[in-house]
Amino acid sequence: MSSRGLALAPPAKNVVVYRNGDPFFPGRKVVVNQRRFLTFEAFLNEVTKSIHAPLAVRNLYTPRHGHRVAELGDLQDGCHYVAAGFEKFKKLNYLNHGRKELRGTRNSEGLQVSTSGWLFSPIFHSCRNTGSSHALGCFYCSVFRNGDLLSPPFPLPLSKSTPLQWDALLATLTEKANLRSGAVNKLCRLDGTQVSGGEELVNGDYYVAVGNEEYKKLPYFELLVPQDSACRTLWYVD
Fold first, then answer.
1. Do the beta carbons of residue 177 and residue 121 sit within 8 Å?
2. C-alpha to C-alpha distance for 166 and 170, rounded to whole angstroms
3. pLDDT tens for residues 11-42?
4. Which end of the chain has fewer surrounding CB within 10 Å, N or C?
């Protein structure tokens, strides 16, 4: 058979999908492979599982104007979409999730929990503005989701000068990680050893949020962290 007679499959596309009406959901990367998904409905079923939607996803919309995507072939590589059931599209600032100026309230432990689920100290804004975390006694860790090789790690800014309540940290990780298994019950290093307290966290290190299931040893860092050395520590900061 000549090369002209060969039917080449369309190349795979990478898209990011948000949950309709959820301002806290950071979006999940989904690979659109038309060899795997023969129909648009099959792809929507995969999206339902990937974003942990409470109801089956039946519609995709563009995030800015809410234009409905009707076919698998209409999806564009590198673009963002909003997944919904049969409800109407809810217009939110999906694309800027995680880049807004963080706001929160102080809890009884002296920490602030932002509306996006990030845990940070009262001097968090000062750390960002000066760029000198060591001088101000604050530091960053990055956290992967156990078994998830589609979502990048999320930042965990902490203060060395503020006492850290471990239960409060796990509660914040639960909200931010949104694990399929439920609540975050432990934090592990990349080698699988468990962190038992906040004093063991190291500035710039990477950790994995784990629920009731066992730690899954996967190449999180190799696959989800940009290879540029400058980006390895600063890629998630505005």
1. no
2. 6
3. 888 999 999 988 778 888 988 987 888 899 99
4. N
Report CA-CA distances (Å) from 163 to 84, 111, 128, 134, 140.
Answer: 41, 8, 20, 17, 15
Residue-wise pLDDT for 98-132, tens only, equals 433 333 333 333 333 333 333 333 333 334 433 43
pLDDT of residue 163: 65
Q: Are strands 80-84 and 59-61 parallel, antiparallel or unpaired?
A: antiparallel
Concatenated DSSP letters for 169-185?
HHHHHHHHH-BTTBS--
CB–CB of 128/237 below 8 Å? yes
The 3-state DSSP class for residue 94 equals helix
Amino acid identity, position 40: F
Question: pTM of the entire structure?
Answer: 0.44
Distances (CA, A) of 205 to 54, 142, 143, 192, 199: 33, 7, 9, 14, 13
| Sign of the C-alpha dihedral computed for residues 84, 89, 91 and 96 taken in this order | positive
Neighbours of 58 (CB within 10 A): 17
Q: Which residues contact 45 (CB under 8 A, 6 or more apart)?
A: 56, 57
Tokens of 148: 């998830």
Pair 107, 15: CB distance under 8 Å: no
